[in-house]
Amino acid sequence: MGVDVFFVLSGFLITTLLVRERDRTGTVSLVGFYARRCRRILPALGAFLLFVATLQCAGLADVTPAEWVASLVFGMNFMPHPAWELGHLWSLAIEEHFYIVWPLLFAYLRGRLASRLLVATLLIGPVLRWVVLLWYPGWAPLTDLWTPTRLDHIASGCLAALAARSSIGLRVLDIAARWWPAALLIAIGAVAGAARSAKVAVGVTPTVTALTITVLVWAAARRSPRWLEWSPIVWIGGLSYSLYLWQQPFLAPAATGWWRGFPANLALMAGAAIACHYFIERSALRIGRRSTPRVIPSPDTSGEE
User: Fold this and answer.
1) What is the DSSP string of 233-246?
2) Mean pLDDT, contiguous 10-residue spans, the chain (305 residues)
3) Closest C-alpha among 168, 160, 164, 73 to residue 119
4) What pLDDT is stored for residue 305 in this prediction?
5) Which 8-state DSSP code applies to residue 298?
6) Domain-wise residue ranges, the chain
7) Are 18 and 303 in contact (CB under 8 A)?
8) Among the residues of the chain, which ranges form H helices?
9) Residue 153's closest CA among 216, 101, 210, 215?
10) Counting beta carbons within 10 angstroms of the beta carbon of residue 2, is it exposed (0 to 12), middle (13 to 18) or buried (19 or more)?
């Protein structure tokens, strides 16, 4: 569920930034977008992969050559049984596929074509999962990892960002947000009911949870709970990418070694994530800001951000 929420947020935020850039400048700088994404993701990922490679050289990890290739080309979500240390990169792979494809489509799709494409993605997702379930049932569990069958949540977030740009779409979102307790119950019911039917679990539940999480995210954005602004929560949010990367080596189940035992594993994971965030992530972002020309907004758009 945490990954589901992350995908919805990512689709919503990235699309919002793309819309604002096109409203402000009349176009979308694909070079600028990809450069920002690379600075945000690759330095920290490179440090983490170097650490895992060190573990393997020390005999503390067992990663196959195919898994190393998959981690480097963002294909881990297509590996059926990856090594524990790199297995969590499946969600980063889906995120990168989204970063590569969606800005290109958004830059060249005009009018309502982008929204129609997102609606089609939401409709096609269950069909693709049902095809796998009915004709290739042994592969059904992997539909939760494959990009074509896992786009519901990202597409739902993107669609909300586009809907918010029109008065009708904004009204629909606000009406739905008033009923966020019902949306929460629907999401819980979808997850609970999925256990009773494979067709529901594989086909319907991902799309239902995607739409209901989108309603919850919009409700939180419109009436932000105060605890979300609490400084420790904000700080943890800033660490989220590094925490995501560094959790795996230290939280391996049934692993040996004092550094993988509680509470040392949590302390080491937190220490590695904090060091990665402050010395690698933030340094890369500072370098990027220095190398990016400063754009002065025009008077009629200066208040957008």
Assistant:
1) HHHHHHHHHHHHHH
2) 93 95 92 94 97 94 95 95 94 96 92 92 95 93 94 96 93 87 76 71 88 90 85 93 95 79 92 97 84 48 36
3) 160
4) 33
5) P
6) 2-223, 224-289
7) no
8) 2-25, 30-57, 65-72, 84-87, 89-108, 113-135, 152-163, 167-178, 180-194, 198-199, 205-222, 231-250, 264-276, 282-291
9) 210
10) exposed
